[in-house]
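Continuing the batch. This is chain 6 of the set; chains 1 through 5 are on the previous pages. Same settings as before, nothing changed between runs. Recording input and output for traceability.
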Amino acid sequence: MKNLSPFPLFKIYLSLFLSLMMIFSANSQALKIQHDLVVAKDGSGDFRYIQDAIDAIRVYLPKRITVRIKKGVYKEKVVIPSTLSNVTFVGEDGTVISYDDFSGKGKMETFDSYTMKIMGNDITLENLIIENTAGRVGQAVALHIEGDRCVMRKCRFLGNQDTIFTSGENARQHFINCYIEGTVDFIFGSSTSLFENCIIHSKLNGYVSAASTPNWVNYGYVFKNCKLTADANVDKVFLGRPWRSYAKTVFINCELGKHIVAEGWDNWSNVANESTTFYGEYKNFGDGANANARAKWSHQLTDDEASEYTTEKIFAGSINPALNKFWTQPSLIGITGKIDTSYSNYSAYQGSKKTHPITEIVPEKTLSSVNESKAITYGKIGERALLLDVFSPKKIAKKALPAIMIIHGGGWRTGNRTQHYQLARRLAELGYVCFTPEYRLSTEALFPAAVHDLKTALRWMKANAQTYNIDTNRIAILGFSAGGELSAFMGVTAENSVFEGSNGNLNYSSKVQAVVDIDGILSFVHPESGEGDDSKHTSAATYWFGYPKKDNPSLWEDASSLTHVGKNTPPTLFLNSSVDRMHAGRDDFRKVLDQYKIYSEVHSFPDAPHSFCLFNPWFEPTVKYVDEFLKKILK
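Output for chain 6:
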């Protein structure tokens, strides 16, 4: 036999080596983590450092996982690589990711100065504080994000110049209920980014945004329903200036503080930019919303133009339509801008009649002893008026009367304030002043917008107490179904700044003295609720939160009354149908009330449909139970 030459032997060894490496690589990825993790500085989790957890996760995850980061200050420079996707990072109150790099530190440039850098797609941040503590030393980025389809919810981004760099020419990012602060160009970059219900805070005179939108991109920065605030000594801030020639930035229904200059926009000392940029506004309000004084080359959008700035259109993209489902599927976004009329007293009657033939409609009729005032504006979101109706006894009372806010149901997505007119009339006949407010449903705005609206209505009631002769120390909140859940949630989150909103009469308290929950669940994550457990993600709560439960469990938990019940919770009456899941969490809720010696009652209607309180033969017993309870509590 001839000896093999060195070269063929080398090829054999190389082939064997490469095969072993492939096997090793495949096995190592198989060993990588693809389940939920906990990071805790005290060692009580799976990892002590965030970056260690990230490095341990399998690349290109086939399904979403959650990394929970316990409270504490993590001084880390965190990188989420482009190979990582489908991960949600959720913090506790007090979870801070902090670093202090800045441009000019050694050979460092702006784009190296980040505290957190996100290169992967489908990354979600929830309830995190991300800060750059370098101070006022020039460019110092807190968040550098280039990933597509990324969501930042209830996060705080703290810094000075260049706080957030949103990049990626075809990347899309959604900031929801976030706080962002800085000095100069503190939101800058080339991505398509929607900032919704955010607080944008200027710490020095300067520029809020510096977009570098590519000229082929339809949308750049869009700020919707945001509030722009500033430190006390700040009085000259521009909405934006173009970092690149085709910058696009629009502010819609935003509250602009007096620190925003009259001209609004700056051309970055280049007149040519005035013909290539697109800077627009629509129905902004506040001291800084000087539409008539704006730079002549900026735009005040028409109604038709503003209608193009829907979530679906902003994030539609044109690169990979298959991925756009993330943004456009109603069960993940929920906002359609269309009124959902699928639930009404009549539709509920038709459904209840099939299962409970004894169901009869309560006749709608005015009462000679009750005054009715309709369509009163209690608040505004931009130019969008929020309305309520008032039902009060005609008989002039010597003392101020107890008041009841009545909140309609409909799965947070449908229904309207007329649902409980007859209940309001009957309770007014018994000596209560009743208010039936509308609130933004999930087709218009996601949680907690409805809570903000209803607390605005409550504060409005107190501010107008003399007009309607109500005693502000004797106020109850009553709600049915989704309204019952909202009534309980308002009771347990009184004066909680996260859920107060910023719309009107903020010098008044959101405390109430009693809650009536009619078939409204107390917990979205309780085993009894069944909310969000369907594989198609079509539950009412999923539409309201904008996330399936598995993708954002902390949000579902935070939105649950059971999470917040405590020593300041008011006495509560529970009226329930025979549908067990509609009182999910009730017994656990009552146990907490019992611990604090807070009064509660439960009355269940055996073999009654979910909508029992709207119909006979259950309507009058409902009125009776409510009246008897409130007479005990609102003495």
